[in-house]
Prior knowledge:
- About 30% of the residues lie in helices and about 25% in strands.
- The protein has twelve helices and 22 strands.
- The protein has a five-stranded mixed sheet, with helices on one face.
- The longest helix has 19 residues, at about 345-365.
Amino acid sequence: MHPTRRDSFLAASSLLVPAFAEPKLLLSTFQVEVTIPIGHPCMGGGIAPAKEIVDPLFAHGFILRGAGKPVAFVAFDWCEIRNGAYELIRKNVAEAIGTEPVRIMVCALHQHDAPIPDIEAQELLEKYKAKGAVCDLGFLEKTAIRVAEAAKRAMAEAKPITHISTGQAKVEQVASNRRYLDENGKVQYNRMSASRDPKIRAGEEGTIDPFLKTIGFWNGDSPVLGLSAYATHPMSYYGQGGVSADFVGLARKRRQAETPGVFQMYASGCSGNVTAGKYNDGDPANRVLLADRMHKAMVAAWKDTKRVAIRDVSFRSEPLKLEARKSAGFSEDELMTRLKNDAKPFGQCLAALGLSWKHRVESGRAIDVPVLDFGSVAILLLPAEAYVEFQLAAQKLRPESFVLVAGYGECGPGYIPIERAWSENDGNLSDWCWVEKGSEKRMLDTMDKVLKSRLMRGRQAGEVCV
């Protein structure tokens, strides 16, 4: 690392303690391009397919060894990864690094000019010769292999990890809730990522998590990895076929250029009901503006860094079972009829995605809700388009810890709303939500179990418990 940059990182650290005499934890990082080909569907067939590559898409990952079998965290610059596609990627990576699929924490960033792979949904569309398509299965299979190979290669270049750091900073004028009260005090749910109506942008900011959180992994006094997360839909403008990691990708790229030798990763938090709509009217110039605001928070979060020696680390996962939606339009027969007969290709895609999730639920396969836990620091992965209230709840469940929440894990359920959204007729739940009412309690109960069931065995100072 350049001396001046190294000095700045050391100045950011509030605690300097000796490294372990012998490394007990090893960290590997990797990056692999996962850009879709021209013509590939974007957002599950809901918008224009890829027409140009504005900037390439990547999967960024780290592998942690020394806490039982290896644990990996992989963030894709994709819109979503669902059902069989999610299992395929986890299986391939797990086999490549010698661990179990449950220990592969995979999430998507959720920009819309990006793919949504779902194996069964695509197979159904092809079986019934539908006009719609959600993904290219051949591309998915090849990409899963390449990501696994990149993870395996990374294992040979591991670095010792002795310390972990935390920092956070408020992000100014990016996130806003879809729900707001209009000038007449009426509840509205119509604030999208790009909101051109001045009255919609004038509404209150609503419920958000205002902080970008950053976790750092260190080898003694040298930073190795920075993982940042923030809860918002990461779109400035989209839908014209311009494949991009959008403003969060730009901010991450800029941060990486500033910190050579420190691997930079980004994950979207729980932001099913959070967009940039209050601060974005869809003008393409806003992409850079929003990226600047994100980058500013990333820099500030690192300056806020508090660093401590790693004393223990554990990995846990709890199964989550959500019901398939039963309301009108979501029965097996209704979805199958829509798949075969809907005049709109996207309508066929929505039906196929709904059937894929329904069949998963009927098979009894649960969703894994994992946490990588360092005691005072925890990385929690939640599924799908969970509403931001779940992220805020996770932090309250462990008030003594710095909890970084990544959303968009297993994305099969679509939106996972809080109960109030149902009672207030949240219009966003009309089609991209495949779960039944009552999901809020199931989510909270599972989060409570996984966050509060830390191993309580006796630990000696500096011991790594597994």
